[in-house]
Fold this protein.
Amino acid sequence: MKCLLLVASMFLYATTIAQGSKGVSDFKNIEFNNQTQIVEKSLPPLLELSGVVFQDANQNNRLDANETASINFYIVNKGKGMAKNLKINTANGTPLITGFSWDQTKTVALIPAGDSAKVAINLQSTLDLKTGALMLNLTFSEMSGFAPDPFNIDFQTKEFSKPNIEVVDHLLRTDKGYMVKKQNTILQVLVQNTGQGVAENVKVSFDLPGLGAEALGENNFLFTKLNPSESKEINFEFILSDKYIANSVPIKISISEKYGRFAQGKTIDIVVNSKTEGTGPVSVKPKDAKESENDNQGSGATASLTSDVDKDIPVNSVKNQNKFALIIGNEHYSDKVLNSQIKDVMFANVDATVFKAYCEKTLGLPTENIQFILDADLVKMNLEITLLSEKIKRKNGQAEIIFYYSGHGSPDEKSKSPFLVPVGLEVSEISQGINVSSLYKTLSQSNAKRTTVFLDACFTGISETAKFITPTTPVIPNEGKIVVFAATGVSQAAEPYTEKKHGMFTYFLLKKLKETKGNISYQELDEYLKSEVGITSLNVNRKAQDPQTEFSKDLNENWKNWKVYE
């Protein structure tokens, strides 16, 4: 009997050594069969899942493109035995959703009785992730056959919200209004994110063609972030020397962003000694799918260096050979006289330039009948007024006049008479300017069939230091057939409409011409300007600006039925 017990003890010891991971406690129930065999009866584990959570980097409970996420859960052993070699397999239950990778297998070596193991199934999406509902299937196996039951987890995926960086508008800025050699030239470019996603590390570079074309400042511009619809205005300054022999300057604009996939460069070809225009509007299609509140979405509006009234100007094909115009924009006063006290007039040159385009396209004036000057000095203004008057006289009462002026007006300190202010004058020289009453008299004596004056100017002061003087009302000849649309009341300032990049008065004048193609009566235009300028100036500039309409007395009420284009 002792020998038999010794053999059994040695067998038990050898089995314990061979299995290694088993302890004596795993062999509590041992049966003897014919006193030659020992049978092990281990207690099984009992595995359950607990605390299943989907976690993503931006915490919107969705797997977005280019994002990391994980499925986290606990495997709890509620049994009395050890769980061993637990394998977890994860499969894509929706194969149409692609563009991500995940931990397809995981292994947990041991889970002691009464203990648990934390498991994380990691996911990484790419920029190519598709939008949809993704389901992952998790299955388990365990050495003793006591694995947890399979389970599925589903969550939403969203494709990448792509930014799109592009040049949406450009303008050329020079003193002359066009590019010439040996003159500083600024190419003003508007870069916008027209996409639906945030752009990062945006770099915009300007390259000139070579010999004779030189940058005068930075040619690389970096923006850390551009949100959807956000735009940045860039001024690239350069100059041409006599060594530049080509007829045009192709300026290459290169754009890059973080991913190297969502930016479009552009080459702008500028003709030497010629004006350049903006590119016009770019259509941005809205997204089809409705996004959650946390998504980055742009407004869909394309930014512009110009106003809505500057684009898509309506065209009337019939030209009136008896219609003439003199258009003057005086904007740059401060740099024309050393230590000048006269401040510049915001948007005056743009006002005049765009009004000229409406005269050509909408109001039926032949181009050769339009006299157009920017930043005009006294000699130039007098010359052009005289030239216009002489043209009209030769039409023997059949001609019509449009006179447009955007710039400074000011009363003379002694006479209090209102004057239009040419560039190059100083505050003390106002009386040398263009006397408004004399201007009306000159236009009247030309014997025009009718004369329309648009004055986007005020007469309240031209410098910070000038004292306020209430001007006298300019005299309109009774017999002159003149109607004057003035931007302000006598003691008011003509304010800019900064958002629209125009003078307040001119913006609404152009807006109505665009809406009606010029098919509007003078009375309707008068009522519109008073209403829109008046309320908008109070809302935007918090200042009163009330346009006035004056006319020759002999016209009585007849002027009200005149049409702007007829």
Q: What stands out?
A: Residues 1-40, 274-296 have pLDDT under 50 and may be disordered.
